[in-house]
Amino acid sequence: MKLKSFVATGTVGLLAIIGAAQVGRWACSLMAVALTYWGGWDIAEAAHAAPWIIVASASGLAMRFMGCMRTTNGISAAARKNRPQPCPEPGVSAG
User: pTM of this prediction?
Assistant: First the structure.
């Protein structure tokens, strides 16, 4: 019984990896076509640049969703923590 489960899980995992690779190929092809058609790039240059653009976009999205670049209103958490407090106006009491 465990062997069937292992084979089924392995098969589904293999198909998922193959599907992800196919989606990556399609994304690179579409990016190359877009660079050629709308960007005025040469076909060879677009074909070489497309995977790098896809990788940069995917890694940026991954970092954003994982919280590596977490910001609130354009201010990172470290900058918010170290931000100086505004000085009180002269002649105004705090209490």
Answer: 0.60
Produce one character per residue of 51-69: b if its CB has 16 or more CB atoms within 10 Å, e if not: eebbeeeeeeeeeeeeeee
Per-residue pLDDT of the chain (95 residues; tens, 9 = 90+): 687 888 899 999 999 999 999 999 999 999 999 999 999 999 999 999 999 999 999 998 888 777 655 555 556 666 666 666 666 666 666 55
Asked if residues 63 and 69 have their Cβ atoms less than 8 Å apart, the reply is yes
Q: Are 17 and 7 in contact (CB under 8 A)?
A: no
Beta-strand ranges (E) seen in the chain are 71-72, 75-76
Cα separation, 50 vs 21, in Å, equals 15
